Amino acid sequence: MKIRLALRLVRVMVHLVAGLATCALVFPLASGGMRERLTRRWSGKLLGICRVTVEQAEGAPVLEHALIVANHVSWLDIFVINALHPCRFVAKAEIRAWPVLGWLAAGAGTVFIARGNRRELRHIFKGLVAVLEQGQRVAFFPEGTTSIQGEVLPFHANLFEAAIDAKVAVQPCALSYLDAGGRYHPSVDYVGDTNFVDSMFAILEGPPVRARLLALPPIIATGAHRRELAEQAHTAVAQALRSDS
Fold first, then answer.
1. Model confidence over 89-119: pLDDT tens digits?
2. Cβ–Cβ contacts within 10 Å for residue 223, how many?
3. What is the mean pLDDT of residues 42-49?
4. Do residues 200 and 5 touch, judged by C-beta distance below 8 A?
């Protein structure tokens, strides 16, 4: 068992080094389409090494141009979404400090926000609107932190205004991680005192994981208030997770 764990860990490290090289050498010269293909392929392979199978649940089609919002369960979330539908992400600044993965997330175009920094938030907000107006897909986790599977914390409304200003829809998505019996997988929880290294080892040592992404009907942002969008998105995700449990 220890040998298998060591081999998985080595494979993860080799794959991370390959990702670092891609971000440093290829991404600066790559077109948007190529970056998406590389991101999708790299994310899928990382999850495969971790024995995480990604599944797109039957639901609404994922829009090519939208503000994507989802519940936040684990550090896996960004890679699950990117393996299916590559996005420009907005994430909390703590992710930037994750060993290697934080640098990779930054290299893939993730924007990091420090809690409580309103000046930085306003600057980032303007950048998000510009990216959305260019026709790109942007994603973030409006809970602001991870939560226990099946639960959804209140959604912070600030960044929903970017969809209003850019005149794009908000598309909620529900993320869940299941075991072989279809129950929430215990190794994936990333709450409390669990740190990134503990979580990584729990996933590598534990049984295989089935990651499930359910895209929900988009919410029209035109004429709406950011709090209304946040509440509607929260309700949609919470209801989907209740139906899925």
1. 887 777 777 767 777 777 777 777 766 666 6
2. 7
3. 95
4. no
Parallel/antiparallel/unpaired status of strands 209-215 and 52-56: parallel
11: number of Cβ within 10 Å: 16
Q: What mean pLDDT do residues 57-81 have? A: 94
CB 169 within 8 A of CB 233: no
- The contacts found for 130-134 with CB under 8 angstroms, 24 or more apart, are 131/88, 132/65, 132/67, 132/162, 132/163, 132/166, 132/168, 133/166
- Classify 116 in phi/psi space as left (phi over 0), alpha (psi -120 to 50) or beta: left
All domains of the chain, ordered by start, with CATH?
Answer: 2-244 (3.40.1010.10)
d(CA 8, CA 65): 36
Residue among 107, 115, 111 at smallest CA distance from 125: 111
Residue of 224, 186, 23, 30 lying closest to 106 (CA atoms) = 23
> What token pair was written down for 100?
């290697």
Distances (CA, A) of 40 to 20, 37, 175, 238: 15, 5, 17, 27
Lowest mean per-residue pLDDT among 27-36, 161-170, 172-181:
27-36
CA distance 153 to 234: 8
